[in-house]
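Before we proceed, please read the two lines closing this message. Let me know whether the structure tokens fit the sequence:

…
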Amino acid sequence: MIYEYPEATAPIRQGDVFIGLPRVELSLRQLPILNERGQAIETTWRDTARANEVVAAVLPVRPVPAIVATQDCDTLRGRDITLCEIRPFRDVEGKATKTTSPKKWKNIITQHARINQKWFYLPPDERVGFADKMAVDFRITICVPRIELEGLRDLRRGRLNNIADEHFRERIAEFFRRYPYDEWYPLEREELDAYQSDYPDAKAFPWQETG
């Protein structure tokens, strides 16, 4: 497949796949912090920020698979390493929710990979730990100390091969430099009607309104 399996002592690189890294679930409205007695008191992040003090908070943490997004030069010397969470492909790409046939999978994996810049497709691989099709979700990032992640290299299950890694690097760049715009803005009224039949949330611009 598109994966390689580095030695446990190999340096961390962009495209390394880790299993079981911590994702913190944080609520800004309901934040349990510990007082001097070690008791949890619920407050909000707004109040905590206003106090401008360091606090100890009780936060749920769950293990998730993730892939290194940080460039190689920074994975060797940087203080922190950023990873993107890996999620089931059907949860990331709505068009794949009920997909079963190879032909439809082929269209989604190739054509929609060019259109949708929010994810990067990862095929199943038992050795990496993926029993099903997966996707890197660029919208969800995890930042961990580099030195401490190096101590958890036993959680690394594989890395992208050269071809996949080059593609992955470009997809990251495309995602963070993409220009957000409403693609239907130049459509004529009839074209907009057809577009709205597929995307009913698209609102007409003033120049598209009928008189």
